[in-house]
Design a protein that fits this description.
about 180 residues; alpha+beta; five-stranded antiparallel beta sheet; 5 helices; about 25% strand; elongated
C-alpha cells in the first residue's frame, strides 16, 4: 500500500470544463450548507439538495420560484435590501429567516456573492442554520467573532508576557556579563 507522502507515478490529467462543472456540482449538491443561485429578480435557478431537505421542499418545488416563497413577510425588507446592496458590493453577510414547508421559521446566516452562472450574472448564496445551543453547532458568526476576540486578547496578553520575559532575560544577561 502506498503512503500519501511517497511520490507516486501518475498520469497527468487535465480537467476539462465539463469535469470542473461536475466537481463543482458534486460539492454544491453534497455540502451540508445551504447553497442557492438566484437571478437578480430573486428567482431560484439552482438550489442544493441539503437546503431543500432542511426546508422541507423538493428541489423542483423551489426551482423557478422566487426566494420570497421561503422568506417571511417580516424579514422581506431585510432580504431585499441585502440583495439590492449587491449592486454596489461584491458580497454581503446577512442573517435572515427562511420559512420551511411546514411554516417553521429557520434562522440562517448567509453570505451572498455576485457570480456568473451559465453565462448569466447571478447571485450565489450559501448559508447555515443558526442553532441556539452553541455546544451542538458552534459555527455561527457571533460565536466566531467571540472566539476571534478571545484569541486577540490572548495574543495581547502573551505579547505583554513575552516583552516582560525578554526584559528579564536581557537584564540577567547584563548581570552575567558584568560578573564575568
Amino acid at each position: 500500500m502506498k503512503n500519501l507522502n511517497e511520490p507516486a507515478e501518475r498520469k497527468t490529467h487535465t480537467l476539462t470544463s465539463s469535469d470542473k462543472d461536475n466537481n463543482y456540482q458534486t460539492l454544491f449538491n453534497f455540502s451540508r450548507l445551504f447553497f442557492w443561485v438566484i437571478d437578480h429578480e430573486g428567482t431560484f435557478l439552482e438550489i442544493n439538495s441539503f437546503m431543500a431537505r432542511q426546508l422541507g421542499f423538493s428541489r423542483s418545488r423551489l426551482l423557478g420560484k422566487s426566494i420570497l416563497l421561503i422568506c417571511p413577510e417580516a424579514d422581506l425588507d431585510s432580504l431585499l435590501s441585502g440583495i439590492n446592496s449587491l449592486e454596489k458590493k461584491e458580497h454581503i453577510f446577512r442573517r435572515f429567516l427562511m420559512t420551511s414547508g411546514t411554516g417553521e421559521p429557520i434562522e440562517i446566516e448567509s453570505i451572498m456573492v455576485k457570480c456568473l452562472w451559465k453565462n448569466m450574472d447571478c447571485i450565489l448564496g450559501t448559508g447555515w442554520k443558526i442553532c441556539k445551543d452553541e455546544s451542538v453547532y458552534p459555527g455561527n458568526l457571533a460565536s466566531m467573532a467571540e472566539t476571534i476576540k478571545d484569541l486577540e486578547a490572548k495574543i495581547v496578553r502573551m505579547s505583554a508576557e513575552r516583552r516582560y520575559l525578554e526584559k528579564e532575560i536581557s537584564h540577567k544577561e547584563i548581570l552575567l556579563a558584568e560578573q564575568n
